Amino acid sequence: MKIYLSVITLFLFTSVQSADAIEKAVKLYIPACTSSLVNAVVVGILEDVPGVRHARVNGMDSAATVFFDNATTSIAEMRKALGKANIAVDGEPVPLDAQGRNSVRQ
User: Fold this and answer.
1) Residue 74 to residue 31: CA distance in whole angstroms
2) Domains of the chain
């Protein structure tokens, strides 16, 4: 009986925590993303931030698309991590939809 209660308690605890978590996606403009080496470094830094699920860089527009759990991390934390490597983020982040597409209608 104790085992069942422990399992149920653990399940309920993790369910409540994950209910608050919302996966978000943003595009960050990073002027330093001009080579595959820098792009790989940026992806590595971003994916090391707890809560970042996935990051990819498009060198053509010098931007990183980042998918993250907003209950665990924030854009400020991503900027801070990049800043420690002297990599600047320009302008404001652009919110994206769950597929990584621009969610702002023009």
Assistant:
1) 20
2) 21-96 (3.30.70.100)
